[in-house]
């Protein structure tokens, strides 16, 4: 009997389908309740969900505590932004370039950073991201520290008008679904097994014959590339690019989303993005010192519930099954 | 580019480097001995600055403000260590990053709630004027005092680490924690003391730099990352590495910002120079870090073999 | 030509010569044991042979090829594999998955991102054969970190075996095992002889003299004797070394 194939329990399947239907129906519901504004908020959450999922791939599954992930998101955003500013609004070109640029930067940064381990790796990824932040901050041609407003959104043809918030929302939703499917297949593939083995014990993985540096780098680049995609969407959603996208606190925010949602789980990034952004919206309505409360909540999560929201999910059967198999 | 200008920049670089050292020293010991990444170290620097400003306001004296802020921050640091941070030593690095990140949020907002977004801290009037170090160079006396204090503290730290029993324990812990524990060292107390010393050094740096850089919420974060760069270059757990790294970073950063735009102007057409000069000078420290890492991934003076 | 040939290998750590001018030959088909008191430098030597450590001086030839500076995973690809004294297993993976992973490392590229690995029945079939070999068939689905100590040691060896080694480096395989598990491990190593050459580091002198066809003794990083087990046992330098360190042995 082979190890079980990666399927979800019947309960989990129903939940996923229900949530998917809800997400698809969301814009209509919002319009019915005269809350159109929330459609663009939902898009923003979806974009962060993609970014957080890409980080969860590197950090949750791969065990690489990369503290500079926002830099790759920022590279994606700036690539699209610079192109739109230069008159190139073709979405296929723009998004393609954004993903490639993010992949290129993560390849270079990863190549240097992955030679180190532990605390060094964390600090170095942080430092490189901050370096990119300073770079974008000082390039006056693209707004410098004030950022750059974008006068148009990307155009994909096919009759899609991304200026329409609802159309944009569906684009984000489709891409998020695609990313989650991609991550799911990746994690259960040969590559995914090696990645998880390396997270457990990368020295042993090397000792049974895997070229660990190479595989870590590839993982890092894949994560960075997906981050670049999120950045391209972000630039479009905000109609604005600014160095703040690359600030290290943004990297921290992504990490917070990952831990709140569930490190190393498929939906952890998305759940974490939803939870944190909703929390911030609600808290900001009550007090200007909302960061104080978010800080305490984060501290509580780290100390008492480090497995995040996904640990609460229904399906004890899944947990028992997981005990004997890998994720 | 005169000799006087170079000397002035060198002094600035020295001043910045020495202050950076005060932060990096405490940080590198925490990394080296406790194997813990502490993002809230910059917050102690900020709290030190705010306390100095507050005490100075209450007492009417800059010096009193600084002298009171140091033990106060040290106590705060030790409290933090013995309650919260201690629970993180055994946890994985991600948890440490996130918990101390949460601390930054909490401490930043707390400071904002207590004192507001910023506070005034003025250097003492006696040090307002310049000193003529060499003919033609008038250097602010306050900055000179910072250099002297920084150098004195560096010397004191060296004596502490190299010639006292506490220092020996710290060195043992930095190079091999398990061995130190096995030898019966009271690790818990050692950690708390080390943390307290680190917090005190942060307070000195924060208080002294306050008049130069502005005492404001969030001042800790930017200097924290530079401190990280210093430690990566110098090697985790090594005070000597922290000193060397700080001075190197201080010099490179200062000279980079002042020399590079001019230098670029010599080789590149003006629009290019004015665009790329500032950009490169802001990142040159990071390029330096990358360069060092390529040759020596453990830093220049790693405490562990 | 020997399978493994060490020439003048030296490694210095913080003022101590962990490995001091070590020269050693391991022939095809041998069970070669490395003995020595604590701190003799046995693990350092294994680390240099496996690639975890780079020697300061000296050469390592494997199947005639100079592998002194080759990265670990490339040594594994050439058939040189080690197991660990303190078990290093993939803790959250099941026993079967641990073995399947090692088989995967050997069989084709892992740059496969889409196809679920569970569909590759050949990997798991081979893993199951190994499972039987190491006697853990009943524990196939158990998480590695839930195994008994001796079972973990067996899996440890199994992982190394899965890579189909020509030379297997066993770092204290009997460490911490009780008498029954010890017997099983010795029997396992006996069975391995036909499939692979073994270089084994051990403290358990009796087990070593049962298993080994050749013995090398290390003291303070230097080789003091090497040859047939019975001859080495009586070598005056060896007797002196062990008498002076009886508590350790």
Low-confidence stretches of chain A: 1-5, 314-327
Query: Oligomeric status of the shown chains?
Result: heterotrimer
Largest interface: A-B, 42 and 43 residues
Instruction: Compute the number of strand runs of chain A.
Output: 2
Mean pLDDT of chain A: 88
Major sheet characteristics of chain B: 2 strands, antiparallel
Q: Identify the CATH class of chain B.
A: Mainly Alpha
> Which structural category fits the helices and strands of chain B?
mainly alpha
The total beta strand count of chain B reads: 4
Strand order of the largest sheet of chain B: 1-4
- Whole-angstrom Rg of chain B: 20 Å
Low-confidence stretches of chain B: none
Terminal Cα span of chain A = 18 Å
What's the shape of chain B? globular
- CATH architecture tag of chain B: Orthogonal Bundle
Number of domains of chain B: 1
Q: What is the share of helical residues of chain A?
A: over 70%
Overview in brief:
Chain A has 327 residues and is mainly α. Chain A contains 12 helices and 2 strands. Chain A has a domain at 23-30 and 38-247.
Describe this structure in words.
Chain A is mostly helical. Chain A has a domain at 23-30 and 38-247. In chain A, 72% of the residues lie in helices and 1% in strands. In chain A, helix 2 (37-61) crosses helix 9, helix 3 packs antiparallel against helix 4 and helix 4 (91-113) packs antiparallel against helix 8 (212-238). Chain A starts with 9 loop residues before the first helix and ends with a helix. Chain B is mainly alpha-helical. Chain B has one domain (3-295): ABC transporter involved in vitamin B12 uptake, BtuC, CATH 1.10.3470. Chain B has a two-stranded antiparallel ribbon. Chain B has a two-stranded antiparallel sheet with strand order 2-3. The mean pLDDT of chain B is 86. Chain C is an alpha/beta fold and 249 residues long. Chain C contains nine helices and ten strands. Chain C has helices spanning 42-50, 72-77, 95-106, 121-133, 149-162, 179-192, 205-211, 229-234, 236-243, and strands spanning 4-13, 16-26, 31-35, 57-62, 65-66, 80-83, 167-171, 197-201, 214-219, 222-227. In chain C, helix 4 packs across helix 5 (149-162). In chain C, 46% of the residues are buried. Chains in contact: A-B, A-C. Chains A and B meet through helix 5, helix 9 and helix 11 of A and helix 4, helix 9 and helix 11 of B.
């Amino acid at each position: 009997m082979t190890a079980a194939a990666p399927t979800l329990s019947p309960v989990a399947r129903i939940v996923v389908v229900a949530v998917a239907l809800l997400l698809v129906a969301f814009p209509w519901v919002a319009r019915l309740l005269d809350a159109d504004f929330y459609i663009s908020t939902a898009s923003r959450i979806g974009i962060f969900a993609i970014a957080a999922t890409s980080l969860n791939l590197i950090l949750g599954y791969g065990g690489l505590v990369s503290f500079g992930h926002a830099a790759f998101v920022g590279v994606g955003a700036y690539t699209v932004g610079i192109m739109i500013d230069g008159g190139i609004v073709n979405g296929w070109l723009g998004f393609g370039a954004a993903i490639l640029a993010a992949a290129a930067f993560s390849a270079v940064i990863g190549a240097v950073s992955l030679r180190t381990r532990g605390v060094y790796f964390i600090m170095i990824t942080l430092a490189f991201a901050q370096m990119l932040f300073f770079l974008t901050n000082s390039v006056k041609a693209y707004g410098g520290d004030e950022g750059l407003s974008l006068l148009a959104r990307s155009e994909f043809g096919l009759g899609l008008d991304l200026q329409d918030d609802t159309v944009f929302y569906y684009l984000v939703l489709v891409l998020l679904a695609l990313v989650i499917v991609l991550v799911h297949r990746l994690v259960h593939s040969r590559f995914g097994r090696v990645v998880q083995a390396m997270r457990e014990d990368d020295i042993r993985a090397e000792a049974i014959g895997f070229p660990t540096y190479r595989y870590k780098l590839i993982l890092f680049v894949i994560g960075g590339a997906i981050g670049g995609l999120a950045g391209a969407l972000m630039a479009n959603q905000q109609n604005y690019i600014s160095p703040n996208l690359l600030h290290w606190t943004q990297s921290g925010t992504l990490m917070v989303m990952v831990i709140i949602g569930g490190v190393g789980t498929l939906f952890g990034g998305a759940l974490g993005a939803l939870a944190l952004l909703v929390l911030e919206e609600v808290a900001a309505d009550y007090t200007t010192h909302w960061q104080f409360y978010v800080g305490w909540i984060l501290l509580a999560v780290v100390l008492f519930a480090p497995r995040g929201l996904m640990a609460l999910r229904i399906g004890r059967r899944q947990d028992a099954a997981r005990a004997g198999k890998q994720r | 580019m005169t000799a006087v200008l170079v000397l002035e920049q060198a002094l600035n670089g020295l001043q910045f480097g020495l202050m950076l050292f005060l932060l990096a020293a405490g940080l590198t010991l925490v990394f080296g001995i406790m194997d813990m990444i502490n993002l809230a170290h910059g917050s102690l620097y900020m709290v030190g600055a705010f306390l100095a400003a507050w005490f100075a306001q209450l007492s009417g004296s800059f010096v009193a403000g600084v002298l009171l802020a140091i033990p106060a921050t040290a106590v705060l640091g030790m409290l933090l260590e013995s309650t919260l941070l201690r629970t993180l030593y055994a946890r994985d690095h991600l948890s440490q990053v996130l918990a101390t990140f949460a601390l930054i949020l909490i401490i930043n907002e707390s400071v904002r709630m207590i004192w507001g977004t910023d506070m005034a801290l003025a250097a003492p009037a006696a040090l307002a004027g310049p000193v003529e170090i060499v003919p033609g160079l008038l250097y602010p006396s306050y900055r000179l005092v910072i250099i002297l204090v920084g150098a004195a503290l560096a010397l004191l730290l060296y004596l502490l680490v190299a010639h006292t029993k506490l220092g020996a324990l710290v060195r043992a812990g930095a190079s091999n924690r398990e061995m130190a524990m096995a030898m019966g060292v009271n690790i818990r107390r050692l950690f708390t003391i080390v943390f307290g010393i680190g917090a005190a050094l942060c307070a000195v740096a924060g208080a002294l730099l306050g008049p130069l850089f502005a005492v404001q919420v969030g001042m800790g974060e930017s200097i924290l990352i530079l401190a990280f760069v210093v430690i990566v270059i110098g090697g985790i757990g090594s005070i000597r590495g922290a000193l060397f790294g700080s001075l190197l970073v201080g010099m490179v950063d200062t000279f980079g910002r002042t020399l590079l735009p001019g230098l670029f102007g010599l080789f590149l057409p003006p629009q290019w120079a004015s665009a790329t000069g500032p950009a490169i000078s802001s990142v040159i420290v990071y390029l330096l870090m990358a360069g060092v890492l390529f040759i020596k991934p453990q830093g220049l003076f790693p405490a562990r073999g | 030509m020997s399978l493994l040939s060490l020439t003048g290998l030296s490694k210095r750590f913080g003022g101590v010569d962990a490995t001091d001018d070590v020269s050693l030959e391991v022939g095809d088909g041998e069970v070669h044991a490395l003995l020595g008191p604590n701190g003799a430098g046995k693990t350092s030597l294994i680390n240099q042979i496996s690639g975890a450590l780079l020697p300061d001086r000296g050469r390592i030839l494997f199947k005639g090829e100079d592998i002194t500076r080759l990265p670990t995973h490339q040594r594994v690809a050439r058939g040189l594999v080690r197991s660990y004294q303190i078990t290093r297993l993939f803790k959250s993976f099941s026993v079967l998955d641990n073995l399947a992973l090692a088989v995967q490392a050997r069989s084709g590229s892992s740059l496969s991102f889409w196809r679920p690995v569970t569909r590759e029945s050949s990997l798991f079939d081979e893993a199951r054969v190994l499972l039987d070999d190491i006697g853990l068939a009943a524990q196939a689905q158990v998480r590695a970190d839930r195994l008994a100590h001796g079972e973990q040691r067996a899996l440890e060896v199994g992982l190394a075996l899965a890579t189909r080694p020509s030379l297997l480096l066993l770092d204290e395989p009997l460490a911490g095992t009780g008498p029954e598990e010890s017997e099983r491990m010795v029997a396992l190593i006996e069975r391995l002889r036909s499939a692979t050459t073994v270089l084994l580091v051990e403290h358990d002198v009796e087990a070593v003299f049962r298993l080994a066809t050749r013995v090398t003794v290390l003291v303070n990083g230097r080789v003091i004797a090497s040859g047939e087990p019975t001859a080495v046992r009586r070598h005056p330098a060896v007797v002196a070394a062990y008498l002076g360190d009886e508590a350790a042995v």
